[in-house]
Amino acid sequence: MRLLERFQCAAGGSGWRFVSRLSTSDGHHMGSVDLTLDACGRQLRLAVVSGGWSLRGGSTGHELSWVRRPAEDGTAEATEHRERASGFTGVSPALLIATAATVPRSGDPVRVRLVALSGVLGARRLHQQWRLTGVQSHLGELGTLDVSAYELVDIDTAEQETVHIAGDVVLASPSIGLAELDSPPGRALHDRR
User: Fold this and answer.
1) Over the stretch 103-158, which tens digit does the pLDDT of each residue have?
2) What is the three-state SS of the chain?
3) How many CB atoms lie within 10 A of CB 163?
4) Do residues 33 and 19 make contact, with C-beta atoms less than 8 angstroms apart?
5) Does residue 42 contact residue 59 with C-beta atoms inside 8 Å?
6) Structural domain boundaries, residue 158
7) How many CB atoms lie within 10 A of CB 20?
């Protein structure tokens, strides 16, 4: 099933916030994402509703902690999970932007340990290597747009993909396409550090 994500994102007091609503192409509500990063790009708080489940979590130093429970029952007993990881990935382009904010601008590869979330918010550990492969400037109606290309390699499977990000918006990746944009992307997150 193809999901649409309508989002708003902006720099906040000392970081960045992304809020979105997930829906089917006919407008049926399927969930939401609310992500807050600090000025260093750490995922301070993530709240996701998807596939009938709710997940709340965030960074606790060198670890992530999170709780997953049925979305309809916020009082259901849940177990807190912990994993030594730098962030979450999956379910939203916002999580790609968050990881990209931590990648060196030098083009040197960096290995990251992430917690990958499925559509029903199941979690599994994932090791990736990220590398900035280039930045291209494009002149358009709204001025110059710098597009950064990142190469992602899954360490366990050697699968590769490329993600294109302009400022704080994912323009394209193998599983994500940008349909429309109401305003120009904000400044790149790494420019805010």
Assistant:
1) 999 999 999 999 999 999 999 999 999 999 999 998 877 678 899 999 999 999 99
2) CCEEEEEEEEEECCEEEEEEEEEECCCCEEEEEEEEEECCCCEEEEEEEECCEEEEEEECCCEEEEEEEECCCCCCCCCEEEEECCEEECCCHHHHHHHHCCCCCCCCCEEEEEEEECCCCCEEEEEEEEEEEEEEEEEECCEEEEEEEEEEEECCCCCEEEEEEECCEEEEECCEECCCCCCCCCCCHHHHC
3) 22
4) yes
5) yes
6) 3-192
7) 21
Please state, in angstroms and rounded to a whole number, the distance separating the CA atoms of residues 145 and 38. 24
Residue type at 101? A
Backbone angles phi, psi at 98, to 5 degrees: -60, -45
Q: How many domains does the chain have?
A: 1
Residue 53 vs residues 7, 109, 136: alpha-carbon distances, Å: 20, 34, 39
pLDDT at 45 over 90: yes
For residues 106 and 153, give the distance between their C-alpha atoms in angstroms, rounded to a whole number: 18
